[in-house]
Design brief:
CATH superfamily of one domain: P-loop containing nucleotide triphosphate hydrolases
Low-confidence stretches: none
Radius of gyration: 45 Å
Helix content: 55-70%
CATH topology of one domain: Rossmann fold
Distance between the termini: 34 Å
């Protein structure tokens, strides 16, 4: 969105004035120069009044109608105050015209002076040129809707920054009012479209749920309730886990920072190195001890049976060597031979073998004494196996392995005790150093916070796993029951499809908020630290609350130039990101399909005396940065501030105007009655 021109009729000092804003992409700055009371702030208020019907004039000075204009009118007549803005938004030209009627009143007394009173509320009309260049009128009941699409009122403070409101703005971004500030920032970055889509998808999912529950199957309804409850708990636990994991990262950063600061201390640096070495030793020898135990368990698990066999081998060999095995076998008769005879029902002598006959039973009895192979052969083979495996079995010496384990354990425990003692001594010693005492305490606090949060995360993870298992089981039962009904089955498939789409949108939304938060933080600090020294930085919370902190992380008060620089750094960086997203120049917000789901619009930056508390060098430094960060910049300024701008950013100025005004004596002092806008640089008055 860009401002094209503004027309003012009877608006405060301006009786009939019009001027154009620079629309040049290279020379994007419009500079309006004027003295105090000449009308610089009036011009800024004219823009917000035309769009939203709001001004910030002092109490008792709210009348907008020009004094000279109404005093020239006859009693009981009316006069209009009018502001016309021409705006280009999303390639379409809009004409926004706001009027308010005033009535000239005269009292009953002959000596009473004329006075003016408001005779109507502001009336706003909007027209635009369509694709064919034909003028179209927006219905009056849709006027504010169109303006909200162009410049939402809740975002006005971020584009129209007035010097007298600066501290209010600083307070606002330091302590945001609930979700309002966060919502406004997310809207500038284009998240409102995707968040509205998420809201609509959630509403659609609720409708699908109600359709499931409207059936006759009470069990389906109960399962749906249980699944919803489990899902809600899973989301809540996941949110808690994510928050604590983010906090742990912050604690880890602080620990790292504190370690660096401790090292900076002359005395602490040496002992800090020793402390790190002791912690490394503790970790290393603790690892050795665990490996030593695992080796012992593995040796006993894999070799205990072999070890016991090995102790029995000498006795077995002795028994075998003294055994007389001759004449123990039945010569040339095996179990297979007897089976053959029984199957033939004939002896080798051709004698018939009847079942249950004495001969038949004799063969059966003989089978009990005939082994599958000769006893001599079996014993001989067994003896060979014993002799060949004896050496291998004897190599596994569990007794010596256990002795070695005890020796290693004693050695590692001694090193672990030494490391623990060193850590305690060094930690206590570091606390005594004046240069490191506070850093050491902060580091330990952060370490304790990490331990506590990790315990909570572990508890929540276990709880989440339990809910996930319960949810999965109930979903399976739910699906089984739903599939039995054709209508419910269709609803289920649509519900699942929408649910998957919702997860993708939520993931995209969350990931891009984190990415843009990091980018915004970097850009804001790059701007701020280029104006001030790097002794300070701006800390931006997840909901965009802004704090100025020193290098130790302590919050510091900001006033004057620092406060204004904080605001300018935040707003200009925010608008720059919005512009990059709009033109597709930010790869961080592209999804896996190469699409950007965020919807943004470049906005102008309107500044009323933004550098009033800056010294000359700081103005020279800041002004070029602002002119390059946003697509259109409009600055209302007074000398000597304005002259510095002219000298330093004239190559970026596309339009420059000077306000000249006329005064009349009123109530014993001069008051401005009319102001005129002259193109170019002239003496203001």
């Amino acid at each position: 969105m860009k401002f094209k021109s503004i027309t003012l009729k009877n608006f405060r000092q301006f009786i009939d004035e019009k001027f154009d804003f620079s629309m040049d992409t290279e020379k994007n700055v419009t500079l309006v120069r004027g003295h105090n009371s000449g009308g610089k702030t009036t011009l800024a208020n004219a823009i917000t009044w035309c769009l939203f019907g709001i001004t910030n004039f002092k109490k008792g000075d709210e009348f907008l109608v020009n004094k000279l204009a109404w005093q020239q009118q006859r009693p009981n007549t009316t006069i209009n105050v009018e502001v016309i803005l021409e705006i280009v938004h999303s390639g379409r030209e809009y004409r926004i015209e706001t009027k308010q009627e005033y009535k000239i009143m005269v009292g009953i007394s002959a000596n009473s002076k004329p006075r003016v009173q408001v005779n109507s509320l502001p009336i706003r009309t909007i027209s635009y040129k369509d694709e064919n260049g034909i003028k179209q009128q927006v219905p009056n009941d849709r006027a504010m809707e169109i303006i909200s699409e162009i410049v939402p009122q809740e975002l006005a403070d971020y584009f129209f920054i007035k010097a007298e409101q600066m501290q209010v703005f600083v307070d606002n971004i330091s302590t945001p009012n609930g979700k309002q500030f966060e919502h406004a920032v997310n809207k500038i970055l284009g998240f409102d479209v995707i968040e509205n889509a998420i809201i609509h998808m959630n509403e659609a999912l609720k409708i699908f749920k109600n359709r499931f529950e409207s059936g006759t199957n009470d069990k389906i309804s109960k399962l749906r309730e249980d699944i919803d409850y489990a899902e809600g708990r899973i989301k809540a636990l996941s949110k808690n886990i994510d928050e604590y994991e983010n906090l742990i990262q912050e604690h880890e950063k602080e620990i790292k920072d504190m370690i660096e600061r401790i090292k900076e201390g002359e005395d602490g640096a040496r002992d800090q190195k020793f402390l790190i070495r002791a912690k490394d030793d503790l970790e290393r020898y603790t690892g050795y001890s665990k490996t030593n135990e695992k080796s012992l368990y593995a040796a006993f698990s894999n070799n205990l049976t072999s070890y016991l066999y090995a102790s029995l081998l000498p006795q077995i060999k002795e028994k075998l060597e003294g055994a007389n095995l001759t004449q123990k076998d039945v010569p040339d008769i095996t179990s297979s031979t007897l089976d053959f005879l029984l199957e033939r029902h004939k002896c080798i002598c051709d004698t018939k073998l009847e079942e249950n006959s004495p001969q038949w039973n004799a063969l059966i009895e003989l089978k009990n004494y005939v082994p599958p192979e000769y006893i001599g052969n079996a014993i001989s083979r067994f003896r060979g196996n014993v002799e060949s495996n004896e050496d291998a079995l004897r190599k596994v010496d569990l007794y010596n392995i256990y002795l070695e384990f005890l020796e290693n354990r004693q050695k590692y425990n001694a090193e672990i005790d030494k490391a623990n003692n060193d850590i305690k001594k060094l930690s206590d010693k570091l606390k005594t150093y004046k240069s490191t005492e506070e850093y050491q305490k902060r580091k330990e606090r952060a370490e304790n916070q990490i331990s506590e949060k990790k315990r909570n995360i572990y508890k929540w993870q276990r709880e989440r796993e339990n809910f996930a298992r319960d949810k999965k089981a109930k979903e399976a039962e739910f699906d089984r029951l739903v599939e039995q009904d054709r209508v419910n089955d269709i609803i289920k498939r649509r519900y699942n499809y929408l649910g998957n789409m919702l997860k993708n949108y939520q993931s995209y939304n969350m990931n891009n908020k984190q990415a843009l938060h990091t980018l915004l933080n970097d850009k804001v600090n790059e701007f701020f630290q280029s104006v001030f020294s790097d002794n300070y930085k701006i800390s931006i919370s997840s909901n965009y609350a802004i704090k100025l902190v020193d290098n130790d992380g302590n919050i510091v008060g900001a006033g004057g130039a620092q406060s204004i620089s904080t605001v300018l750094a935040f707003i200009t960086s925010l608008l720059k990101l919005s512009q990059q997203i709009h033109y597709g120049n930010l790869q961080n917000v592209i999804n896996e399909n190469g699409e950007c789901l965020l919807s943004t619009e470049p906005y102008p930056l309107v500044l009323d005396a933004p550098f009033s508390t800056f010294d000359t060098e700081r103005i020279k430094n800041v002004a070029p940065k602002i002119s390059n960060l946003t697509e259109q910049v409009i600055i209302f300024s007074k000398d000597p501030e304005c002259q510095i701008l002219i000298d330093n950013i004239m190559d970026k100025v596309g339009k420059i105007y000077t306000i000249k005004f006329e005064t009349r004596e009123e109530n014993g002092h001069d008051e401005v009655w009319s102001s005129h806008i002259i193109e170019g640089v002239t003496n203001a008055n």
